Amino acid sequence: MEFERIDAVAKDSKAFTDKQTKASLYKTVWRWHFYAGIFFAPLIIFLSITGGIYLFKPQIENYMYHDLYYVQQGQQKISSTEQIHEVKKNYPHAKITGFTPSFAPDRSSEVEIMVNGESISVFVNPYNGDIIGKLNENARFMAWVKDLHNGELWGGTIGNWLVELSACWFIILIITGVYLWWPRNRKSLFGTLIPRINLSKRNRTFWRDMHAVTAIWLSLFIVVQLFSGLMWSGVWGSMAHRIVDPISGNPEGDQPWEKYAFPKSTIPTKEIADVPWAAENLPVPESSPNGVKTISVDKVMQIAEKNNVQPGYRIAFPDGETGVYTIFLDPADVYPNRPLPWAQQTLHIDQYSGKVLAKFAWSDYGALGKLISLGIAFHQGEFGFISQLFMLALTIGIIMIVVSSVIMWWKRKPKGKLGAPALPENFKMLKGVAVIVIVLGLFFPLVGASLLIVWVLDYFVIKRIPIAKQWIG
């Protein structure tokens, strides 16, 4: 009997310890979730609003610049060389940097020029060569929205880091949120998968369900959206490029032009053209000067058609004697009749011989390259108007999640205090959490840096200021 009593006490002690561990873990995760949500809520709402606007870039620009984009359909288009010649006559000191051929019977052509360090698009009637008007690329409304969204406009590199940091922490918010939401002993669908909505009694339970249930239904789509957005970020995006590039070529892992015996530069393609994501970091090959005249843009267009590049492509002109013509199609830039993501292509053409020095199409992408490119297309709503509406609904859902969390916090916040969740009682049982923190810090470098900064502030500042310590809790 004594042994049975000892065994029972041991079991009770173990059960108590397990319960204590789970409670400490729950409080730690909740505390993470709380602080990340409080600090990044304003920026997440801001990014959702600007991203929601940018989703409809094709429709908005089509409306704003309708008089520049559209022309009266004629009988016969003049050659692209003649169209560019008309621009040269009107801008004799300008440098021609690019050309977008008219891709529909009623669309204008677009000649990109550089004047006094500014990039300007000149719109030309393809039927008679008349100059319709011009547009400073940096003055486009959607370029302004894009720079707001990525942080460049209001913070430069630091702004971009803050946007990246908020996206990384949002992913952690989703992970910790799923842990906190997990039903455990709750068996009812209401409050778990179905919100308990009572419009006449909008208490904390109402806002909790609006927050948790909405988030759990949208969580997978939000994570895809966040990771695809991170592909453009300065730190994590650069890391992703280094991982993807070696396998983004053909199945053997070679670069797509290693079969071409032509010299290659060290310049990444993104520095000469706004190509699709998968082609951004690929080195630009070089033309071989041989005393022959540069081929015409009409010849370049014939090469594009021969390689089955769909209408809506753009042509970047050679820069210097070893520069190349770059043909690229990014479906995101085409409206209406936008091609699907797998139509994207990037070609580099020798400016003298017209030989294809590099051809990088969807079939050349590796599995991960295709997956990321699809994620980016999903992020920008490139699968048609329905996908734009879906992404808009997703951004509205994110705003609802954040706003409901702020209201929920405000309702429970003690007067004069931040109202942070209490610290766990037993830190010794949380070694696993420390490992998770280290892993997340390594996977998201800016998260690791932010955690280090917070720890330094907490240890050397907040703990030594009683008022701040009491306010934070």
From TrEMBL:
The keyword Transmembrane helix applies. Residues 77-134, 295-358 form the PepSY domain. Coiled coil: none annotated. InterPro entries: PepSY (IPR025711), PepSY-ass_TM (IPR005625). Signal peptide: none annotated. Keywords: Membrane, Transmembrane, Transmembrane helix. The chain crosses the membrane at residues 32-56, 161-182, 210-232, 389-410, 430-457. It holds the Pfam family PepSY_TM. The keyword Transmembrane helix applies. This is PepSY domain-containing protein. It comes from Aeribacillus composti.
